[in-house]
Amino acid sequence: MEPAAHSGSDSVQVTQWVEEARVGSGAAIGQVLEFCRHYLLGVANSELGQDLQAKGGASDLVQETFLEAQRDFAQFRGTTHVEVLAWLRRILLNNLNNFHRRYAESEKRRLSRELSIDEEGPHAAAGRSLAADISSPSSFAVANERSAALDRALDRLPADYREVIVLRHEQALSFAEVGMQMNRTAEAARKLWTRAILCLRQELEGQIADGS
Fold first, then answer.
1. Degrees (nearest 5) of the Cα angle 111, 104, 178?
2. Which residues lie closer than 8 Å to 190 by C-beta, 6 or more apart?
3. Quick check: 75 and 90 in contact, CB under 8 A?
4. What are the angstrom distances between the C-alpha of 198 and each of 62, 74, 99, 155, 162?
5. Rounded distance, CA 128 to CA 135, Å?
6. What is the dihedral of CA 52, 55, 61, 67, to 10 degrees?
7. What percent of the chain has pLDDT over 90?
8. What is the C-alpha separation between 205 and 145, in angstroms, rounded?
9. 151 has pLDDT over 70
10. pLDDT for 95-133, tens place per residue?
11. How would DSSP label each residue in 63-125?
C-alpha cells in the first residue's frame, strides 16, 4: 500500500513535529503518529486478511507499532513525512509477521490437542496418549521440533485431507464454510476432517515410533 499524497503544508508540519520530537517533545511525537494512523490502519487491514482480522484487530497492531515507535524514536534518522511513514510501516510489518507466527503456532497447538478428541473408538486412547506426548518437553525438546513433526505429517496426507485441515485450522473456517470451499455439505466436510485428523494422528504416531 502506497502512502497517500499529502499537501506541502502537511509535509512541512510533519518535519517541524519531527524536529520538536528530537528535542524531547512527547506531544510532537504523538502528532506525528496520529498523522500516520490512517495509512497504517490501511496497511494492517490489507495484510491481515479476513480470516485473521477477528483474531487481532488492525487498530491493536497499529497501537503496538505506536508504542514501539515512541520507545525507539531516537533511532529514527529521517525528517520528511515519507520517511516517517516508511519507518513506521517497517515496524508495523514486523509486528504483523510476529502476529502471523504466533497465530500459526497457536493453531498447531490447538490441532495437536484436537488429535485426541472428536474420534472415539479403537484409536482414541492412542490419540490421547499422543496428544500428551506432543505437549511434553520429553517428547519434543522445543516447539520448533513439534512444528516440524506436524509439518512432515501433513505433507504425507492425501491432498483433500491436507486441504480440509488447512481450511479448518489455518483459516479457522466453520464446517459449513469448509464444505462450500470443497463442494461438499457441512456434514461431509466434518466427516472428512475427522478422517483427516485420524490419519494425521497415525502419521505422528509413526514418527514417534520411528524416533524421527
1. 60
2. 175
3. no
4. 40, 54, 29, 15, 12
5. 11
6. -160
7. 6
8. 15
9. yes
10. 888 776 766 666 666 666 655 544 444 444 444 444 444
11. HHHHHHHHHHGGG----SHHHHHHHHHHHHHHHHHHHHHHHHHHHHHHHHHHTTSS--STTHH
Q: Rounded to a whole number, what is the distance in angstroms from the first to the last CA of the chain?
A: 43
Q: For residue 32, give the amino acid letter.
A: V
Buried b (16+ CB within 10 A) or exposed e, 28-48: bbebbbebbeebbbbbbbebb
pTM: 0.46
